[in-house]
Amino acid sequence: MANVFEGIDESIRKFIEEQPMFFVATAPSGADGLVNVSPKGYRDCFAVLDEHTVAYLDLFGSGAETIAHLRQNGRIVLMFCSFTRNSRILRLHGIGRVLRPDESEFRRLAPHFNLAHPGLRSIILVDVRRVSDSCGYAVPYMELVDERPVLDKVHSVRPAEEWAVRVAGPNAKSIDGLPALEPDHPLPTCVPRG
């Protein structure tokens, strides 16, 4: 049975900070759309802002399902799993918004993150409505070797023309055809901290 919490307290914040990855799930409205679940890594891309607010850096990937779903209905759940001897699954249900790099709210939140990731697309800001955990007894024990640097390496050599194609092509719509990135979405650049 799940335990439900009033918000993200210090022990929950500590648990979140200890996890090397998390999962993001969203879905379009209606029964016909496809549910999306995405794994997220890089520990410097997630921040607990207060008891009911979290945010993470959204890096370019193969598509833009999360952005499309959030633009349509805002529903999101983030899941953190412990792969150590202390079994636990934590879920943060909420309403998310997409913050573009050219928005003032993005710049306000920027100091919470390492913005040196070359594929930076947006910040996902989540108003957390429900915090719960469960046992995670069936989650396997696993040892972390290291963070995988491949995404940053690939993005660091991508030319501006290719970024423009990604914004206008595979990141413009979800696989269900929902609008994702706007045509004028800023192309990635490394943004200095502070």
TrEMBL record:
**SUPFAM superfamilies, sorted:** FMN-binding split barrel
Q: Which parts of the chain are coiled coil? A: none
Q: Which Gene3D superfamilies match?
A: Electron Transport, Fmn-binding Protein, Chain A (2.30.110.10)
In which domain of life is the source organism classified? Bacteria
Which stretches make up the Pyridoxamine 5'-phosphate oxidase N-terminal domain? 8-133
Record's InterPro entries?
A: Pyridox_Oxase_N, Split_barrel_FMN-bd
Instruction: Tell me the protein's name.
Output: Pyridoxamine 5'-phosphate oxidase family protein
